[in-house]
Amino acid sequence: MSWSFVARRLFCAAAETAASPASTSRWERLKNSKAGVWCRSLVSDYKEACREMVVGAWERPVKASVYVSLLGGAWACFYTKPDDSSFDATLVEYSNQLGLLSPWIRSGPSDGHIQSLVKLRNEGRLRHASLGLLSLVYHADYDPDTTLYEAQCSNLSVPWRELPQRVLDVGFAGRWWILDSKMKDFDVNEEEFKQLPEHMRTTLPPSVQEVERNERLHEESWLALKVEDEEKETNVVVKKEDSVSEESQIKSLEEEQTQA
Length: 260
Fold this sequence. Notes:
Elements (H helix, E strand, L loop, with lengths): L1 H18 L6 H6 L2 H26 L1 H19 L4 H16 L8 H15 L3 E5 L4 E5 L9 H4 L10 H4 E6 L2 E2 H6 L15 H4 L6 H14 L5 H33 L1
Antiparallel strand pairs: 1-2, 2-3, 3-4
């Protein structure tokens, strides 16, 4: 009984082996695994999302162009965002420009702002913070290398709510806006004109007629002089002088005859 049962089992196993297909490849086993199924579903989801984006952009071109412009502007702002090295270079450049001017010519606000920034920079109290699309420069109370307890204790650090009062400059689109605005007319000292009357402190831009007249006079100043006109003018002057001299001689002769 037992031998017949074992023989029947062997016969069934052989039949199942003969009926089963050939062993699958490694790539098929990997594709049918859980990781393979998850990757295929993820790719199909991204494919469907991209198809919907293309169809939506084709159906609503204005909305798509607005989104693309916003994304492009954000990328441009992020790419052209200035860093702390550019702020140091700009500060040194403006400081050198002011140093070439006499103290009597420098603008007071420009000179004061640059001098305060240079002092903070020399003390190591300038800090730079990147906010993605723009940069901020603010001042701290201590140098980071200071070993004082107040400078190293985290509980005594400056809270973030005081950051707006400490901001010194804003970097956006490749420029430091506050620094550039402070350097406007840096070679004009307003203190020199305080003693002048009110109507002489302000100057108005020239009108269109004055500009055209100045341009015409400037163009005429480069024209060559005509020698013929000068010769004619000299000949006329000489003739007038000769006629005047002849008349004076005739008058003198008549006076001599009357006296005789």
